[in-house]
Amino acid sequence: GAVVSQHPSWVICKSGTSVKIECRSLDFQATTMFWYRQFPKQSLMLMATSNEGSKATYEQGVEKDKFLINHASLTLSTLTVTSAHPEDSSFYICSAQGHGANVLTFGAGSRLTVL
Amino acid sequence: DAKTTQPPSMDCAEGRAANLPCNHSTISGNEYVYWYRQIHSQGPQYIIHGLKNNETNEMASLIITEDRKSSTLILPHATLRDTAVYYCIVRVGSAAGNKLTFGGGTRVLVKP
Predict the structure, then answer these.
(1) Fewest CB atoms within 10 A around its CB: which of A58, A59, A71, B30?
(2) B19 phi and psi, to 5 degrees?
């Protein structure tokens, strides 16, 4: 079945630094990937849609300059949290779906803690 | 995407069937019903989806009412490992570019 891999699974960083999270589709190509954020005891919130070869589409209220998304290939999308602050600490999850499939597969998530 | 309404939580006994309701009274004709679950600190896991016919797979059954305004996910024999948050999501089409918007879900606790 379709597998989506995220790296790192967890990261701790100091306030003011930038953190990059990778999302890879291991056995299929994905022109579109989605990034979500989840705070404790809350549901997943869609942050942005990552489109291969073009700019990402951000949901209302999500700062595009804060959360940089790059989708340079059909199997890799990256989310960079720039100048991270403690309030950016969260669980970040990506998802992707191959062409011809009808199910979105989610990665295992990346837990970011900003000190 | 149409909004869904689910009970916030429910308990069920191990070995018994778990019936999880979902209301999607404003669903449109081209919208599918998807079910995912999320076990603590993991990414969501796909369970099943359907358009208007009932569906069954190795994990669960999905019963969609004739008017499509509600559905029920059935876990036939709940185990302790089925403890999770279950999300009912209505999605426009099933193509790769169509996003999933999560609601609050139902927190299911399977008890011995």
Answers:
(1) B30
(2) -110, 115
pLDDT (0 to 100) of residue A48: 96
Q: What span, in angstroms and rounded, lies between the C-alpha atoms of B44 and B38?
A: 4
| Residue from the list A43, A49, A111 with its beta carbon closest to the beta carbon of B99 | A49
Smallest CA–CA separation between B66 and chain A, in Å?
22
Region A20-32: mean pLDDT is 94
Query: A57 to chain B: which residues are within 8 Å by CB?
Result: none
Q: How far apart are the C-alpha atoms of A46 and B37, rounded to whole Å?
A: 16
In the numeric block, the tokens 């089925």 are attached to: B82
Question: What value, to the nearest 5°, has the Cα angle with vertex A48 and ends A47 and A53?
Answer: 160
Q: What is the pLDDT of residues B54-99, one digit of tens each?
A: 999 999 999 999 999 999 999 999 999 999 999 999 998 877 788 8
Asked whether residue B2 carries a pLDDT value surpassing 70, the answer given is no
From the list A49, A97, A109, the residue facing B43 with the nearest CB is: A109
Q: Please report residues of A whose CB lies closer than 8 A to that of B96.
A: 30-32, 96-99, 101, 104
| Site from A43, A45, A94 to mutate, B interface, most B CB atoms within 10 angstroms | A43
* Buried b or exposed e, range A84-95, using 16+ CB within 10 angstroms: beeebbbbbbbb
